[in-house]
Structure formats: C-alpha cells, structure tokens
C-alpha cells in the first residue's frame, strides 16, 4: 500500500495515512503545497463487530470484511485520482471513538448493557407502518424499544436526542480540538439504537453527513454494520457479498466526504453533482468540471 505512517506528535499513537497517486511502495507521504489536500480525523467505534446481530437480515460474512484502513485507502485513492477524482490528496489520522454520555442500561430483568450508546440487547425491527416485530425480510430497523418502554419516552430522548441532536452531540465530543482544519468521519455500528420509532419513516440511511456551519458539529457518519444488513431490509434483495458490501462502504464514505466539501444537496438535474450550496474548505475547492467527472451522486463504486 502506498501510505505513510508517522506519529502525529502528541504521543497518542496517532497515524497519518494518505494515498499517493504517483508513489511507489513504502513511499512516505507528506502534504504538498502544490496539490489540494484534505485532512480527515477518523474514529471507529470500539468493538464494532460485537454489534453484528442474529436473524435473517444480518450479514456477518459481509461485515467481517470491514476494515477502516482499507476503506480510507480506497477513498483516498478515489479522491487523488486526476482522472476519476478531483486530484485531492486525502490524509487521515485515527483517533479514539468517544461514546456520548449515557449511563449503564439495566432492563430490570437481569439484562443490560454497560453503555447507553452500545446496543447489546434484543434487536427490534419494525415493518414499515406496522407493529414492531422481530426481523424478517422487508422490515425496517428502528429503535431500542425495550429500553424505551422501560424508561419512558422523555428519558429515552434525553439519552438519544432525535436525529440531528444526537448526531451533532456525537460529532462535538469526538472532534479533536487540536486537529484544526480536519474533517471528522465516524464509523459506528448502526443507527438503530438512537433513531425514532412509532411512525412511518424511511429506513435511516447507513451513511450521512451533517453539514452544519458550526465546525464542531459538522462531520460524516458511516454505519458499517447497518450497511452490511441493508439489502434485504431496504431493497428486499439478497444479502450483500463481502465484495459488494465493501464497494458500497467505500463509495458511501467517499460520497459523504463530498458533502463535507460541497454541501448537503443533491442536484436533481445534473448527473453526478451535488448542489455545492456551501464550500467548507477553501483549500480544497472542487470545480464543476471535476465534480461531473467524479460523479459523486450516481456512481456505485469508488474503484470503478
Ligand atoms: Zn448524499
């Protein structure tokens, strides 16, 4: 692999990695002032594999292929490519995942879990618009109903503020204030423990970006466990193969990073472009020509 590994310099064992399109093996990469550079802080939830569930819609074989370093290298490769990408050198540094505040959960019957942010109990699913049930094909993951029923809605939403609330809180506490100018990307298991229940709503996307103008509440989420499970749930298709899962993972990660660069919209009338409502990084401007070539909206793979 063409990447560098250097201590970040604060003694915490952080690692730089970046794709060097023209480099050779064992080539150490350092930022070049002559190229566009994108700096990412990447946090992966601890023990993420423990959240892979059981049942007809889970897909442990595909999830086993998840690898943060490989995903980031593929994304960096995509962005750095002068023909398919935007000629951006992506450098990334790993940091520790910090769960949002939450006390241990006791279900009162001997079951429980040590942290509110980690879901280790029964995974409930709800058919769209119907009574929640255990999962089979064609249903939607919603929330930790067991915990919600136990503590009541008010207490539940204190722990898991709705939508943007919990997302922004998670970004705020995970962002390293020393990494100024870095974009934040979080790999977390699935959204199911913190999303809404009780009404019909789309399956919460397995990847999303929060493009708040407040820097510390701006960042991207990718939920690899959920992504590995989504095809039977969302599209009534067969579970992804490991190779398919990785393609979607890499591409979704690249897509959400594009939102951090370009804004939160999808242009309805121009193939491959995002709306570019805001440009967040002045040192990393993507031209409209580059954007149409990259096709960050319609492509289905980062490596093709
Ligand atoms: Zn998008």
Query: Which range best describes the helical content: under 10%, 10-25%, 25-40%, 40-55%, 55-70% or over 70%?
Result: 25-40%
How many beta-strand segments? 11
Note the beta-strand portion: 5-15%
- Heterogens: zinc ion
Based on CA atoms alone, the radius of gyration comes out at 19 Å
Low-confidence stretches: 1-28, 126-141, 192-202
For the terminal residues, how far apart are their CA atoms?
18 Å
Count of alpha/pi helices:
8
Please trace the helix and strand order, writing H or E for each element: EEHHEEEEEEHHHEEEHHH
Main sheet: strand order: 1-3-2-9-11-10
The description of the largest β-sheet is:
6 strands, mixed
Q: Look at the helices and sheets and give the structural class.
A: alpha/beta
Count of individual domains: 1
Query: Looking at the structure, what is the overall shape?
Result: globular
Provide the residue-averaged pLDDT: 72
What does this structure look like?
By secondary structure, the protein is α/β, with parallel strands linked by helices. It has one domain (16-294). It contains 8 helices and 11 strands. It has helices spanning 60-63, 68-80, 145-151, 153-159, 164-174, 224-234, 242-262, 288-294; strands at residues 16-18, 36-44, 88-95, 105-106, 112-113, 125-126, 132-133, 140-141, 183-187, 207-211, 218-222. The strands form 3 sheets. Strands 1-3-2-9-11-10 form a 6-stranded mixed β-sheet, sandwiched between helices. It has a 3-stranded antiparallel β-sheet with strand order 7-6-8, with no helix packed on it. A hairpin with a 6-residue loop joins β10 and β11. The radius of gyration is 19 Å and the shape is globular. It binds zinc ion (ZN). Zinc ion (ZN) binds next to α7. Residues 255, 259, 266 line the site of zinc ion.
């Amino acid at each position: 692999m063409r990447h560098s590994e250097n201590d970040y310099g604060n003694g915490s064992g952080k690692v730089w990695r970046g794709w060097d399109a023209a480099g050779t093996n064992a080539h150490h990469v350092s930022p070049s002032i002559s190229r566009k550079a994108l700096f990412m802080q990447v946090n992966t939830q601890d023990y993420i594999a423990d959240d892979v569930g059981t049942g007809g819609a889970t897909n442990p074989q595909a999830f086993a292929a998840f690898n943060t370093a490989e995903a980031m290298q593929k994304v960096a490769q995509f962005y750095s490519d002068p023909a398919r990408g935007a000629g951006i050198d992506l450098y990334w540094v790993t940091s520790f995942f910090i769960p949002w505040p939450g006390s241990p959960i006791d279900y009162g019957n001997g079951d429980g879990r040590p942290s509110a942010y980690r879901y280790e109990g029964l995974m409930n699913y709800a058919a769209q618009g119907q009574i929640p049930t255990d999962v089979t094909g064609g249903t939607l993951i919603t929330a930790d109903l067991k915990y919600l029923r136990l503590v009541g809605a008010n207490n539940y939403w204190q722990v898991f503020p709705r939508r943007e609330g919990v997302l922004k809180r998670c970004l705020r506490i995970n962002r390293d204030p020393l990494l100024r100018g870095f974009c934040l990307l979080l790999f977390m298991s699935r959204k199911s423990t913190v999303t809404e229940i009780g009404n019909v709503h789309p399956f919460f996307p397995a990847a999303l970006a929060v493009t708040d103008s407040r820097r510390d509440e701006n960042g991207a989420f990718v939920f690899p466990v959920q992504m590995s499970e989504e095809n039977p749930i969302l599209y009534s298709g067969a579970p992804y193969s490991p190779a398919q899962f990785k393609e979607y993972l890499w591409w979704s990660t690249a897509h959400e990073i594009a939102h951090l660069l370009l804004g939160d919209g999808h242009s309805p009338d121009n193939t491959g472009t995002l709306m570019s409502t805001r440009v967040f990084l002045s040192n990393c401007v993507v031209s409209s020509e580059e954007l149409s070539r990259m096709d960050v909206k319609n492509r289905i793979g980062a490596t093709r």
